[in-house]
């Protein structure tokens, strides 16, 4: 075996001093080709910052970071328009950013005289948020734009940077639409909200600070549904002592849509 | 004697290969077109967003601002964020729509006396901690940054659409102009300048709350403290970083 390996005629001329078996030589050639390929791929075909931070091109982050901005942000406006910012800060529109109404203003901030933002004075702007829509959450002020003072621009009655609170709506359903709609199709349709809740007048102006009452005791429902309650005959009755005495009635029967099953 | 020569040979071979290896290391290391983003001194962020579903009024300002800020095509099929309207009818069936992403309002769809519950749900890329889109990208053109944001390398994307297929939230689309995949970046270019994402900036009711996960004194931490939050499709284990509060059971 070994004798075969070191047959002198198989050695490379230059490497004569070291014995160099043939198969290693071939392997080495393949190995070197692979290494050259790897270097070529790494240096010429693969983007330079690939795998620097992970399996991606780190330079891509820089090009994303370098993208221009269009919205300058509200703080940027206060530098020059502090009176509008101050006016809006305590108003109902405190969370409505300047650029919602005036459009993106980054280029205006850079050069105010060259790029003036628009001041939308038509009726189209405000309904974006205030048009009536059943899906809007409880308490958000909404109007019917067809009937709400048509033809006049909103500005003539409401200062856009400080819209004044109007007279409060009378009906509970104006703000509690979902509950009112649910109750309307339930067995309790005929019951007024105020039969179960006493709502202070201030609740309609400032709902979260002045909360209406809610029933607290089983005997409240018992006033109509108890065995001996003095109420209309067709109202179904239960015995308060034996009918699920450990729980409040509304833990099982949703009061705005009571069901027995 | 022979044995010894053989040993020498091996050693010689090892020396040769080490030499080659060193050469490889020297030439193989990436060329010095360095990037600033690898600045190790910067604190590592973990960005996330909270969404208070019961505050959304469906005004669509976020959709519009997102398109303007990120130059998203105006056609009604391309959105990085959009608003869905859910309507649950009295008979219990649910309807979902998002006309033009909600950017032009929601015309009445069903008569009001048929509606039981209805509300709006803003949607966007969930910036998953375990993102399926990144796993399927064949060229590493979409990736997760150190601060947890999934980005797309526009110059490297092939437009093969695997990621669009892989996203369980439908958050990606193919930009018709560049033919590359696109989606919400949390307005990464704004964050680095200390600005909020455009959708958060314009939201009039603070339905969207942006911040850093784990930072105790932040709007997002308060949002998490006061709400029971949910993520979309938790059973997929994508670990989203968009947290919804007061989410109705019907929302998918």
Overview of the molecule:
The complex is a heterodimer of chains A (261) and B (252). By secondary structure, chain A is mostly helical. Among the domains of chain A are: 12-60, no CATH class; 71-113, no CATH class. Chain A has helices spanning 2-5, 22-45, 58-65, 74-78, 82-89, 98-102, 106-110, 127-130, 177-184, 193-196, 218-225. The radius of gyration of chain A is 39 Å and the shape is flat. Chain A starts with a helix and ends in a 36-residue tail after the last helix. Chain B is of the alpha+beta class and 252 residues long. Chain B contains seven helices and eleven strands. Chain B has helices at 2-28, 61-70, 132-136, 162-166, 188-191, 198-202, 219-226, and strands at residues 47-52, 81-89, 94-97, 115-124, 142-144, 150-152, 173-174, 181-182, 208-212, 229-230, 242-245. In chain B, strand 2 (81-89) and strand 3 (94-97) form a beta hairpin. The model of chain B is unreliable at 1-6 and 28-39 (pLDDT under 50). Chains A and B meet through helix 2, helix 3, helix 8 and helix 9 of A and helix 1, helix 2, strand 2, strand 4 and strand 5 of B.
């Amino acid at each position: 075996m070994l004798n075969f390996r070191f047959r002198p005629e198989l050695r490379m001329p230059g490497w004569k001093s070291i014995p160099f078996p043939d198969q290693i030589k071939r392997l080495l050639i393949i190995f070197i080709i692979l290494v050259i390929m790897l270097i070529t791929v790494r240096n010429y075909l693969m983007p330079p910052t690939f795998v620097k931070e992970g399996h991606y091109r780190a330079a891509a982050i820089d090009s994303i970071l370098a993208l221009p901005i269009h919205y300058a942000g509200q703080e940027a406006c206060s530098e020059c328009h502090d009176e509008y910012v101050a006016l809006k800060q305590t108003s109902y529109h405190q969370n409505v950013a300047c650029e919602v109404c005036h459009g993106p203003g980054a280029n205006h901030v850079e050069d105010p005289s060259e790029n003036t933002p628009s001041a939308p004075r038509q009726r189209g702007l405000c309904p974006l948020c205030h048009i009536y829509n059943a899906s809007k959450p409880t308490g958000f002020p909404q109007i019917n734009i067809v009937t709400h003072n048509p033809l006049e621009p909103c500005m003539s009655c409401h200062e856009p940077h400080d819209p004044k609170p109007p007279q409060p709506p009378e009906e509970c359903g104006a703000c509690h639409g979902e509950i009112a709609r649910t109750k309307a199709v339930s067995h309790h349709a005929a019951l007024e909200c105020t039969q179960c809740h006493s709502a202070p007048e201030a609740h309609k102006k400032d709902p979260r600070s002045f909360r209406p009452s809610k029933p607290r005791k089983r005997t409240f429902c018992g006033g109509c549904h108890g065995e001996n309650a003095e109420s209309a005959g067709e109202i179904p009755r239960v015995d308060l002592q034996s009918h699920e005495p450990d729980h409040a009635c509304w833990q099982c029967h949703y009061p705005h849509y009571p069901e027995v099953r | 004697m022979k044995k010894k020569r053989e040993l020498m040979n091996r050693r010689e071979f090892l020396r040769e290969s080490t030499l080659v290896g060193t050469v490889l290391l020297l030439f193989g290391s990436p060329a010095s077109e360095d990037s600033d983003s690898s600045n190790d001194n910067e604190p590592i962020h973990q960005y996330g967003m909270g969404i208070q579903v019961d505050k959304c009024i469906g005004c669509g300002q976020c959709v519009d601002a997102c398109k303007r800020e990120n130059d998203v095509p105006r056609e009604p099929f391309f959105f990085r964020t959009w608003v869905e309207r859910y309507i649950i009818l009295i008979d219990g069936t649910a309807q979902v729509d998002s006309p033009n992403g909600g950017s032009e309002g929601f015309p009445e769809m069903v008569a009001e006396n048929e509606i039981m519950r209805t509300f709006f749900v803003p949607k966007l890329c969930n910036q998953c901690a375990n993102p399926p889109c990144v796993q399927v990208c064949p060229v590493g053109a979409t990736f997760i940054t150190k601060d947890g944001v999934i980005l797309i390398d526009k110059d490297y994307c092939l437009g093969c659409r695997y990621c669009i297929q892989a996203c369980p939230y439908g958050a990606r689309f193919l930009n018709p102009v560049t033919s590359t995949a696109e989606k919400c970046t949390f307005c990464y270019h704004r964050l680095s300048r200390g600005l909020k994402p455009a959708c958060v900036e314009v939201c009039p009711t603070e339905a969207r709350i942006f911040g850093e996960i784990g930072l105790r004194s932040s709007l997002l931490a308060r949002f998490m403290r006061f709400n029971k939050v949910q993520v979309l499709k938790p059973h997929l284990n994508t670990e989203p970083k968009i947290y919804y509060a007061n989410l109705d059971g019907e929302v998918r």
